[in-house]
Amino acid sequence: MSRNDNKNSLDLQNNSRDYTTSLLKSTFGAIPIVGPAAQELLGIVIPNQRMDRVVRFVEFLGKEIDGLKVEIKSFEEKV
């Protein structure tokens, strides 16, 4: 994946989807007995929430660091 492909996935700020999910989860939480289960289900069903974006960012960052390690090792072998 190039940096341009990750442009949207690297946005770690809250967006309208995050605020909507939060509002719906608190609404479902007010429902007696089934509310907490509904909250969890809602959190699982809605894609691309902030935590998903954070995970993708950390994975991307890990790949970038691995690439830098390879470049450093290659540089050290040449020197």
Q: Can you tell me the residue ranges where pLDDT is under 50 for at least 5 consecutive residues?
A: none
- Oligomer type: single chain
Tell me the structural class.
mainly alpha
Separation, N- and C-terminal Cα atoms: 30 Å
Q: Helical percent range?
A: 55-70%
Describe what this molecule looks like in 3D.
- This protein is mostly helical and 79 residues long.
- The chain has one domain (16-78).
- Helix content is 68%, strand content 0%.
- It is built from 3 helices and no strands.
- Helix 1 (16-29) packs antiparallel against helix 2.
- The longest helix has 29 residues, at 50-78.
- The chain is rod-shaped and about 65 Å long.
- The model has no long low-confidence stretch (mean pLDDT 83).
Layout of strands and helices, then pairs:
Elements: H1 16-29, H2 35-45, H3 50-78
Helix pairs in contact: 1-2
Name its key features.
single chain, 79 residues, mainly alpha
In a few lines, what is going on in this structure?
The protein is mostly helical and 79 residues long.
